[in-house]
Fold:
Amino acid sequence: MIPVLMIMASSLMNAQFLAASDTSEGSVRRYKSIINANKEIVDFIEHSLVEKGLPRHLRNLALIESHFNSRVTSGAGAVGIWQFMTAHANQYGLTEQNRTDIYKSTKTAAVSLLSLYKKYNNWVTVVAAYNCGEGNIAKAMAAAGSSQYHLFSQYLPAETVNHVKKYLNACYATGELQSVLSNYNSSRMNTVFLVNGGSKKTVSDLAETDINAGFSLSVIADELQVGMDRILAWNPGISEELRQKGESTLYLPKDLMPDFLLRKTKILSRSLKENSAGNQP
Structure:
């Protein structure tokens, strides 16, 4: 029962942290009014998102970016309903001129958002990355030593944190906030507590990386703050393989793997020190 209680407690904590900051009638009415005034564009956006297997609530990203106005240009030079910067647009084959094209920019935005989700596995981080770029997300994660938005957001630009708040407010207005928060919590927690009766039970795909015998599994477990039983459940036979071959593939849930990679050098250094101390007479 302990893992279940931990999941519930963490979910409640994050539901409180990631919440709509403005639930006033005026805010809800304002967002709904903008959507209703741009129904044709919204219908096209939602159709394009669904085609890519993306949730309809991502239409709220265009809502807060531009109010669906393709002629909007930000002070930083972002253009169109999806507010593409030139470099971001070029990364996905969208020309500078076509940033104002609703059809082409929406198709490009869908591809970009899908790519970001495959990397971060939750929509909160995707919205943050869309605003400030993957480089700033990586720096914030490194500074916080965590891949969890509620921990690394303090190292993001204030504009980005405010952008995420606006997104959550918009999702509250459209009745989709709980879906966004559930996605965040399940992405963060359900992939961590996968063990049931000692067997490997995957709620989502595991990520993999290579390690050598210099790594201590107990140190990995300690640094990632998970039980040794979970490390072994995700990696049956890894201890024997490390002993016999000197190397092995390490499997971790997607949301834990970035944390491991951020700490990899520290984990190896600590492992070597503890192994050395343990071998001394």
In short: The two ends are 41 Å apart (CA to CA).
